[in-house]
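Q: How would the structure tokens look for this protein?
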Amino acid sequence: MARPLRVVCSDAFYYLLVRGHREEEIFKEDKDRMVFMKKLKETLQKYSFLCYAYCLTPKGYHLLVRTPLPNISEGMHYLNSAYANWFRNKYRIKGSIFQGRYRSLVIEPERYLLLLTAYIHLVPLKEKLVVDIDAYPWSSYGDYMGCEKTIEGLRYREVLHRLDRSLKRARSRYKRLLGEVSGFEPFRAAHRGVILGDRGFINRLISDNILPEDRYRDLIRYTPEEIYNVIISEFSISREEIFLRKRGNGLRQLSLYMLKSLTPLTLKEIGRLYGMDYAAVAQACRRFELRMASDSDLSETYRRLLERLRQRYGP
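A: Here is the predicted structure in token form.
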């Protein structure tokens, strides 16, 4: 299997996920977690990483960091190697303790920094480690709530101030935010499992020569509304006509196929927009694809709509 793509650049925000080999525990007791935290702090200092959030679970860990220098690979190698060597020595085991390479996303902080910290802090609830995250000691949530100081220089103020300049009010709003975050999965929402950001963010990475254009231009994705707007303009119809459930509504099938091909939405998410289950969406898209392969006029219509999207909303 090919290794996942890596985006390495300076002054970048990364969401990082590391899991144990074969989903085995990498933290068996609190002593293990304490040693890992010591090595994490060493890594932050040694590689000038800025930490925004973290969470340790028995079978892995989550990190949200900013790298002033283009050294995410070196820092993660140091952290994982240092802890793995200690763990293997303690438990007298051989081989890797981690499940392959760490997973990473470059994130657009304006859109996702706040959301990702909330996602990370909710992991103990999601994995049913506790019923109240206030009771979970192995995450940065306590730092955010002002209950403790687990990492010197943790950037919780920078995150909370996005909600309110008053820390007290920001903490109250952050707690409410935790109750509103549901269904968000970073790697599912990311473009090709690499970048979590909008089209403008990807274009900036390309224009700054961080992403080679020939490999990453196809990361660009459109929103459902952008696709609907182009169809409405091209065919002089109302928005409601796209969604009409009537036999032979080719525009409904066309829009389904475009959403599947050109947006980061899953089949299930597309289905919710149309009142369909994911299997029906998949079948409709497959039928449209087969029709387009044998109908040159339909194929030309699709090509024309793609060109309209690019002209109106960018590449």
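The domain at 12-215 is CATH 3.30.70.1290 (Alpha-Beta Plaits).

The mean pLDDT is 89.

Upvote if useful.
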